[in-house]
């Protein structure tokens, strides 16, 4: 019995002297790469005065951008004109032919001006917004490009007068062409003011590859 205790004592002594191994380090976590930024869609307007490129904001104005891009894909804008031009204000087009007849349209869309205004999209020079009637939710295909800052067109409240006009993008190239269009001579025609004396055509409108 004493021999067994001696053996156990010797084994315990060896165990006490044995170096203690540190736990294995956990493998380093593989860093997750940040998602690549999604390119915003760009649309080129080929006008009588040169190309104009618009960059759109689908995250801030999803319904408006989807509606605009569908008209682009359908070829709706080709052959339309800038039919309303007001120096020191804006140029408007996208719905009428040279004889001022209106092209067939889809249903009007929801006015996203409240949310886009809160996100910082305002009717400042070079921005593009949806044209509409006095009814807030009446925009279809027509759009306008601001040639100056137009604070009066921004969203203020949810009344018909204060709802505002939805900005959904901006000119990133070709603002000089817009400035030339703004200066054309205009006249009254078929009960409309600001009609260019000589047609300012949208020869083509296309979605640029990303």
TrEMBL record:
Every PPIase cyclophilin-type domain range: 50-207
PROSITE patterns, per database record: CSA_PPIASE_1, CSA_PPIASE_2
One Pfam match: Pro_isomerase
Signal peptide: 1-18
Keyword match Cytoplasm: no
Role: PPIases accelerate the folding of proteins. It catalyzes the cis-trans isomerization of proline imidic peptide bonds in oligopeptides.
The protein's name in its UniProt record: Peptidyl-prolyl cis-trans isomerase
